[in-house]
Amino acid sequence: TKIETRTEPMVLNMGPHHPSMHGVLRLIVTLDGEDVVDCEPVIGYLHRGMEKIAESRTNIMYVPYVSRWDYAAGMFNEAITVNAPEKLADIEVPKRAQYIRVIMLELNRIANHLLWLGPFMADVGAQTPFFYIFREREMIYDLWEAASGMRLINNNYFRVGGVAVDLPYGWNDKCEDFCDYFLPKVDEYEKLITNNPIFRRRVEGVGTVTREEAINWGLSGPMLRGSGVKWDLRKVDHYECYDELDWEVQYETAGDCFARYLVRIREMRESVKIIRQALKAMPGGPYENLEAKRLQEGKKSEWNDFQYQYIAKKVAPTFKIPAGEHYVRLESGKGELGIFIQGNDDVFPWRWKIRSADFNNLQILPHILKGVKVADIMAILGSIDIIMGSVDR
Amino acid sequence: MTSGIDLQNSFLQSLQGFGLPPGLAKLFWIPLPSILMIIGATVGVLVVVWLERKISAAAQQRIGPEYAGPLGVLQPVADGIKLVFKEDVVPAKADPWLFTLGPVLVVLPVFLSYLIVPFGQNLVITDINVGIFLWIALSSIAPIGLLMSGYASNNKYSLLGGLRAAAQSISYEIPLSLAVLAIVMMSNSLSTIDIVDQQSGYGILGWNIWRQPVGFLIFWIAALAECERLPFDLPEAEEELVAGYQTEYAGMKFALFYLGSYVNLVLSALVFSVLYLGGWDFPIPLENVANWLGVAPTTSWLQVLMAALGITMTVLKSYFLIFIAILLRWTVPRVRIDQLLNLGWKFLLPVALANLLITAALKLTFPMAFGG
């Protein structure tokens, strides 16, 4: 007769207190030795009722609040928060404001991907890149601080019809400096990480999502593009002024953690490309003597033109969201960030449904965790790029 | 080969000079080397901890410890003192006996292994015939302690960490022993003194690293795995198992694990320098130089100089290796458990076996160069 050892599966509770649970995600993992048999994510530890709060705030009251959804990407949250009533009320945004928005969003995309890269590398065991990404991210925060007065969150920069303030004097030069500084740093990351044999073995072929699966599970962002779908809302929806800039959608076909890594690294480079063009093409130029020019040349000044303003119209506290409903979305660093807004001809929205990218991307986790090793849980979870503030809202 | 300084004899003779009987003099001598070794090992650990923090800080563009003493050199001492005064927590439903015994079993063999580390011709606690074998034998006790503490903690992470530690130690002991065996075959001895003696005489060219280019790589990888250093720190992988078998430990028991792992690192570096880098041997054959200059090898100042140089060389070589280990730790990601075991069993083991066979063949073919 054959002798065999029978082992009972072990149920391991990972999180919400666990060094690599990216906040307060809880995974109930069933293990057979080192193999994952099943995994059940438990979410909601950071639920703060963001949607309900929106229903009792005017837009201008709500904007400072929204950077707590996805606290690694506050600008995206602010952008979608003002885009929703803008699209519903058909408010036109000046070109200059659009360019400023695009620059801010792309800076945020870089910051978002940087804050993905560090923890992801830590998840596979390399602690050092975490410190490098902070070095670069600080510079983006310096730029934000100069423009909006705040660094990580609470930028409170986006307004219905434009942005809160124009860029300060010399900001464009500093931003250009950052672009010059940043690209060699990306090369540095790639030198350290991309061809590291241990890293490659840890992420290649791990957590593979096929093209069909990615579409069927409603994935978006780098998760979707890593699986070979060339889908980027910046190209698809033509929002802001992305159409006027020359850039490519980065995608990979392998669908594993390494493909997602590659997509994000290339998107950082692509973002730098976008920022550089936007800085050059910004209507009204880089220097903020527009106000002086307007005063000097009087009312008929070409600088008084609509497109040269940073905001179409200061939003009144009594701005009423018109009756009607609309789904507005944009491409955040994590994927499709959308708002389903229902107006009731009131200063408050009647319904404010947030479709966050990482909440939808996280759904596939139990599915791709089956049969992997314990260590792969972290690599796969890290590659999804979740922020629990955005998952739980 | 000159015998150099013999501390034991000089000590005994000086005590007898005070009128003590030889037996009593011997009794005075006995605890001295052990105390010296424990102090030496502990100070070595403090230095390594400081180095680890400073080098990792440099790699990560931080400053590292800087307030405790000049350049923060006292930081490890401060950490140690803090750990001593911390509450000793034993988790509920843990097995208190095994829980306490685990760290002890991990630390003791590592300190014991210092018995066989030579710093000079006579600067070794015991020159036993089975020297290097004793180290290998002692190092396989540690996983029992790790498994014990992992099992006794009543924590699933600890259990997984303990099991990983056991699997890892067993898998990497074999290639490690085979690499050592190749050296032993060339030296015709298991004694660490003989192994160094056999390498000396030709300066840096005589060191085993040239004759064992594959062996030293195997040894280094296996030694890193035995020390549970990144990229092989799976038993305590923070991102996966929180802290592995150490999860439930606090205070002095945790400090024992910490101490044990660093003592083990220093020890592995010392053994590596003994096996492959000529131990206390200077890169230039100094004895020939002394002969050439016409200084007799028995001159006392020359002997003191050589002994001091020997200790410096051994320590320098080991700290160079420790530096590499630290830099590696802060550069590379961690391997996965199946990759770790595959590397051990499917790659290192056959390569180590082949290395042993080739060494044997070379020894038969070129007895001059390979210690026939």
Description:
The complex is a heterodimer of chains A (393) and B (372). In chain A, the strands form three sheets. In chain A, strands 1-2-3 form a three-stranded antiparallel sheet. Chain A has a three-stranded antiparallel sheet with strand order 6-7-8. With 393 residues, chain A is an alpha+beta fold. In chain A, helix 4 runs antiparallel to helix 11, helix 6 (171-193) packs antiparallel against helix 11 and helix 11 runs parallel beside helix 15. The longest helix of chain A has 29 residues, at 95-123. Chain A has helices spanning 50-54, 59-66, 74-89, 95-123, 128-148, 171-193, 197-203, 211-216, 222-225, 233-236, 257-281, 290-297, 357-362, 365-369, 374-384, 388-392; strands at 10-14, 26-32, 35-42, 158-159, 162-163, 324-332, 335-343, 351-355. The relative contact order of chain A is 0.19. Chain A is globular, with a radius of gyration of 22 Å. Chain A contains 16 helices and eight strands. Chain B is built from 16 helices and no strands. The longest helix of chain B is centred in the middle third of the chain and has 32 residues, at 156-187. Chain B is 68% helix and 0% strand. Chain B is mainly α. Chain B has one domain (87-369). In chain B, helix 4 (75-85) packs across helix 13, helix 8 (156-187) runs parallel beside helix 16 and helix 11 (213-226) runs antiparallel to helix 13 (251-276). The A-B interface holds A 10, 12, 18-20, 34, 121-128, 130-132, 135, 192, 196, 198-199, 201-202, 373-378 and B 56, 59-62, 156-157, 160, 230-231, 233-234, 237-242, 330-339.
Write the layout of secondary structure elements.
The complex is a heterodimer of chains A (393) and B (372).
Chain A: E1 10-14, E2 26-32, E3 35-42, H1 50-54, H2 59-66, H3 74-89, H4 95-123, H5 128-148, E4 158-159, E5 162-163, H6 171-193, H7 197-203, H8 211-216, H9 222-225, H10 233-236, H11 257-281, H12 290-297, E6 324-332, E7 335-343, E8 351-355, H13 357-362, H14 365-369, H15 374-384, H16 388-392
Chain B: H1 7-17, H2 22-29, H3 31-59, H4 75-85, H5 96-113, H6 131-139, H7 142-152, H8 156-187, H9 192-199, H10 208-211, H11 213-226, H12 238-241, H13 251-276, H14 286-293, H15 300-329, H16 337-365
Helix pairs in contact in B: 1-2, 3-13, 3-15, 4-13, 5-6, 5-7, 5-13, 7-8, 8-9, 8-11, 8-16, 11-13, 11-16, 13-15
GO biological process, one term (chain B): aerobic respiration
Pfam families (chain B): NADHdh (PF00146)
Catalytic activity (chain B): a plastoquinone + NADH + (n+1) H(+)(in) = a plastoquinol + NAD(+) + n H(+)(out); a plastoquinone + NADPH + (n+1) H(+)(in) = a plastoquinol + NADP(+) + n H(+)(out)
